[in-house]
Predict the structure.
Amino acid sequence: MSKKALAIILGIILLLSAGCGLKKQSGSANNAVSDMQKVSSGNQGVTKNEARDVSSGEQNGRKITQNYEIYVVVEDLKILSRDIQDKARTMGGYIQNEDINEYGCSITVRIPQQEAEKFVEYIDKTYEVKNKKSRTEDITQAYTDNDARLKNLKAQEAQILEILKKANRVEDILKVQEELYKLRGEIESLEAMKKMWDRQIEYVTILISANKKEIIKENKISIIKGSDFFKAISRGVVNSAIYLIVGVQRLIIFIAANIIWMIILGFAAWYIYRKYFKNKNVVSICKNRDPNDKE
């Protein structure tokens, strides 16, 4: 066999080997994408089924949130605020929010669920309660559905990470990463919801609204007896004399301070009277006199 023929045969073998390698690589990339699509499409059906399983298995305890709204009237708002803080601290709770002014206050307390009834009883016994409301909500179904969805998304995340390891082409890697980012966003949202519900279940929210109590003092009238009667008379005479002297003093001060204006006004009044009223009287007298009368 000539050298030229041998070279042609080797070239054909190399081309066939390269073609098989490319086909195998393309097939593995397509398999990675198809696996990702199967995981994504199969997740919805699994989520519903597993949500039913978790819901049916959650028979031992219910997920209940509870809130109270209590309205009281007190004589001292600062004492109320201090007592509520101390009581909440001793029961393992805390003050979430407080707004206090001269006439009223609003205090939001978070108390552990096992201590909530004792805290409400303390408020009933210690303060004058005008109104009280209690509200409970059963979130068991929503909680278990959320938990099942979270579990399935985490399983899907693990599968996508395995698929990401098998992907070779840049295009396939980007598609898998995009799906992974979306999935992790949903997982973070569901985890935040779960934490919020856990806090609401663990701690009862109690809103205490208070107004300052109006204290009306009673006027007690009693008969004055004995020497107190004469002392009261003497005090009355002395007080009357003092009021009279003070009144005269103020009158003198008023006259002294306004004497100039009083003189001016008096002169103006005398001038007006002399010019108008006196002349009017003279004219009327002249008109009424008999013309035959002579002085």
User: Anything to note?
Assistant: The beta strands are 64-74, 94-100, 104-112, 128-138, 203-212.
